[in-house]
Amino acid sequence: VGRGRASWSPDGTQLVFAAESEGNTDLYVVGGDGSYLARLTTDPGDDYQPAWSPDGSTIAFRSMRDGKLWVMDADGSDQEPLFSGEGADFAYQPSWSPDGTQLAYISGDVGNTRVHIMNADGTGDRQLTADEPSPRFEEWPSWTGT
Questions:
Q1: Which of 71-75, 81-85, 106-110 has the lowest mean pLDDT?
Q2: What pLDDT is recorded for position 1?
Q3: What are phi and psi of 112, to 5 degrees?
Q4: Contact 96, 53 (CB under 8 A)
Q5: Are strands 68-73 and 80-81 parallel, antiparallel or unpaired?
Q6: Hey, how many other C-beta atoms are within 10 angstroms of the C-beta on 113?
Q7: What are phi and psi of 55, to 5 degrees?
Q8: Which residues, 6 or more positions from 22, have their beta carbon under 8 angstroms from its beta carbon?
Q9: How much is the average pLDDT of 2-27?
Q10: Which residues partner with 26 through β-bridges?
């Protein structure tokens, strides 16, 4: 069972996706022709919502290790948390800018979410949408342009 969206590598040869196995959700990569399957994450905290960077070297994802965004090399190595906003309760649904220098993401709780952007290294976090007293729910930010 998948959780969130799958993400194609920029060259279209691989697909990264989240799947549940033995009570845990991890990230996997499969060859675009189905020729192989490799598990990228093994942490007990669920990992999902992968997003492949435009240059193909990095994958951003949401992790329930801390409820925020993480990045790793495309082969699953060097898994590191990203700063996801001062005081942010949750961060999810990462989306890379076309040039790979920034990530847009959603922060907050269901019914009170906001769109943020930050630099790809986790610095420069800023909220784009205003705090509203009425409930709202933004989902899956995306970029346009090249």
A1: 81-85
A2: 43
A3: -155, 75
A4: yes
A5: antiparallel
A6: 20
A7: -90, -5
A8: none
A9: 88
A10: 19
pLDDT at position 56: 96
Longest Cα–Cα distance of the chain, Å, equals 50
The neighbour count for residue 87, using CB atoms within 10 Å, is 6
Distance, in Å, from the CA atom of 85 to the CA atom of 70, rounded to the nearest integer, reads 13
Q: Cα–Cα distance between 1 and 5 in angstroms, integer? A: 12
Using one digit for the tens of pLDDT, what is the confidence trace for 96-144?
999 999 999 988 776 778 889 999 998 898 888 877 655 556 677 888 8
Give the Cα separation of 55 and 143 in Å (integer).
Answer: 15
